[in-house]
Amino acid sequence: MNMKQMIGVGLVVITSIIGCKKKNEAGKPGAYGMTTVKLQLNWKPEPQFGGFYTAAEIGAYAKEGLDVTVQPGGASAPTVDMLGAGTVEFAIVSGDEIVRARANGNKLVALFAVYQTNPQGIMTRASRGFTDIGDIFKNPGTLAMEKGLPYSDFLKSKYGFDKLTLVPSPFGDLSLYRSKDNYAMQCFVTSEPLAAKKTGIEPKTFLIADSGYNPYTTVLATTDHYLAKNPKAVAAMVNAVRAGWEAYLKDSSRTDA
Cα dihedral angle (188, 42, 44, 12), rounded to 10 degrees? Predict the structure, then answer.
C-alpha cells in the first residue's frame, strides 16, 4: 500500500457544527483582516505533512482569511498537551490520542484525518523471513518502540513481549538496524523503510493496522473551547487544509522540493 492509497482527503467529524459553513468564512479578523493561528506538527517536516505546507504555497490559508504558522515538531512532541494548554490553536495528533485525552479531561476535537489506514508500522530485516507482524513477537529479538503509546499496549496484550528485549524508539536512527540481525523498530511506513533501503539492508515492514489496531492518524485537531469561540476560523482551517491536500496529491513535487 502506498502513501496515496492510505490517504483519504478529509474526514470532518464536527459537521453538525461547521459542516454547512461557506468556504470563505473565517474567524474574527486580526491585523490586516486575517485570523492568526498556529498549527503544531507532531514530527519533523516530511511528506506525511505535505498537504499542510501545500495549503500555504497555493494560498489556501489566505483565501480563507487565515494567517497560519506551521510549526515543526520532533521526537515526542507534546501536541496534545499544547492544545490543552492553549499554546496553539491547531495541532496534529492521532485518533487514539484524542480518545485518551478526552477521557482524561482534555477536550480535543478531531477535524480532519489525513490517513484512513494508519501508516505506523514495525520494520525489521527482510532476511529474517517473517511473513506476518505476529512473527516479530514469536521470535527472540530486540524491539525499539516508544512505551506507553496505545498501539504498544495493544500489541503487548495481543502478542506478548516475553521473547523480546524492549529498547527506546530510535526516532528514525538506523544505527542498530544496521548492526543487529534480530532488530525491529517502530516506523512510519512512508519514511524509515525508504531510508533503510539506502543502507543496502533490505527491510521488511508490517503495518500495525494489520494486527487489528487501525485508528486514524495525522489528525488535525483543536479543542472544544477554541471551536466554541471560533467556529468560523475552524471551518476555514478545514477548508484550507482539504484544498492543500487535494493539491498535494495531484502534484507533490513543489512541496517536496
Answer: 80
